[in-house]
Amino acid sequence: MANLELPLQSRMFANDGIAIAPIGSLERVSLRADDSAFASIEKVLGLTLPKKPKTSVTKDDRTALWIGPDEWLILGQDNASLMQAFGKLRSQKFSAVDVSHRNCAIQISGENAVMVLNTGCPQDLSLKAFPVGACSRTVYAKAEIILLRTGENEFHLECWRSFSDYVWKFLLDSATSL
Amino acid sequence: MLLIHCPYCEEDRPELEFHGAGEAHMERPKNMGDISPEDFEKFFFIRENRKGLVFERWRHLHGCGRFFNAARHSVSDKFICTYKAGEPKPELSDEQIAAVLPPAKGTPANEPIVSKGDAK
Ligand SMILES: [Zn+2]
Predict the structure, then answer these.
(1) Beta carbons of B64 and A144 less than 8 angstroms apart
(2) How far is the CA of A126 from the centre of ligand 1 (A)?
(3) ipTM, 2 decimals?
């Protein structure tokens, strides 16, 4: 993977009960597939695709996030070789697009993480409605994001690269006015 | 904020994630090249725009991305139900429609939540 400079590189924020930090480069694949391709895709990826709305599946260095009825976002650590895995498939009906550099990710953690996220995200982020492992495409202020809860007080936020500065500043603005 | 039930995500989600997409169940003519300009106008421009019960297309744009349909009241803005694209118009009972009617003339738009007995 090309070594691109990440837009939020070297930014960092921490305050009482809240820490906001950019997540380093990741491999990302936008996957569209129908039932007939599930088995083959799951085999080359080495994980089961989540079929229930708002759920994710993590195995080793990769995570599959349910985005829609035939859409997933696959996240992999920098050397997960996701596209090479999809390259092994030949006749199955699916589309896998490398969007590694389209998005960038921010980690929001701490006991005030939900409060900070809810300043811009209108979803119910209580543990009951949005448990650990839950994920969803949604909005944060005026930007579209994908949110994944990685811990009780820890979230992985994906947004499009060009929106990252806006999302970052909105998060900081919220975090400093708690 | 309106909460809209997405039939694909199977839960109520905030309206900021959705986009309205006009009247539902508009059937595209199969012989588009042969129809008269008047019939094309009817298909392309003319909408019922009813006051009352309406069937609308919506898209869960910032969610699962899917189009679906909704039965709604165009005055009270309340939803009766939503259903997946391609499904037929649902049969609605009188009670379902009565539940989304706007308040009658002369009554406050929003009834107070506290009942008289509780108010001090
Ligand atoms: Zn949805």
Answers:
(1) no
(2) 19
(3) 0.92
A3: which residues sit within 8 A by CB, 6+ positions away? none
| pTM of the predicted model as reported, rounded to 2 decimal places | 0.90
Residue B96 lies in a domain: yes
Element spanning B15, H or E: none
Question: For residues A145 and A171, what is the distance between their CA atoms, to the nearest angstrom?
Answer: 13
Q: Using one digit for the tens of pLDDT, what is the confidence trace for A99-146?
A: 999 999 999 999 999 999 999 999 999 999 999 999 999 999 999 999
Cβ-defined contact of A53 to B10 (cutoff 8 Å)? yes
Number of domains forming the structure of chain A: 1
pLDDT confidence of residue A3 = 63
DSSP B3: E
Residue A123 touches partner B, C-beta closer than 8 Å: yes
Q: Do B9 and A122 touch (CB under 8 A)?
A: no
CATH number at residue A59: 3.30.1360.120
